[in-house]
Amino acid sequence: MKSLKYIISDIKSTSEIKGLMEVYEEIAAAKMQRIRKTVTASCDYFEGLARLSEEVALDLDNAFEGKNKFAAVFLSANTGLYGDLIDKILVSFVDFVKENNLDAYIVGGLGVALTKSYAPEVKFTKLDIDGDKEDVDETELESTLSLLSGYSKIYIFHGRFKSIARQDSLSSTISGPDIQKYGIDGKDKKEIAEKRFIHIYEPSVEEVGNKFAREISVSIFDNSIKENQLAKYAARLMHLDFTIDNIDSRLDKMGNEKKRIRKKMEQKKQTERTARWQRI
Fold it and tell me: pTM to 2 decimals?
């Protein structure tokens, strides 16, 4: 049987852990609320922008006969306490890369470690961008996309917020991130102008393509990172809430055990006092 001193010490340390979890929970809730306002307000806009990006990429392929080379990016995290969300995204990412034989890229040290453990056969490149920062520097985003500029389509695997209780794995796409890959030089401008496109381009399909390459791709990528953050913090809230409930249950059990030990100690003392009175 555990001693009373041990139980009291265990209760104290467990209560301190609970306090720490509650602090983490408050921080996650505050961050989630800030990011949620930004993401939910622009959700439809960025979905439409992503669809438009894909249509522009199709027109660029039609005009310049670009090379169709695809990549997949896994937005993970640098730390844990996100429940099973990162694992769900990892499974979707790995299955897609294997099925389609794509070049793989990973953001976040946790994703790197999990991929090496879960799918050591998958070769990937780590992207040096901090996806846990609330405001990722635009220069970092542009630098990251420049590394991916040779691909006609980039699949981004990240978390998506459905509700506090539900976060899913989602694949977003960035299409045609670099007009330069098409090789504009030497193309007949008249021939290009006469091609049939999904959209009408003004001043030209090249200029619009460059706009998507420089600015719109960065915006879509940044929004994917923010969506991932929102899902991660919601998952963290659920994970911490579950952990705190388990801690409360453990504290209740330890409290009951503490009462039992004290009761036994009182009974023992009472028995000893009774025995002394009987000897007198």
Answer: 0.76
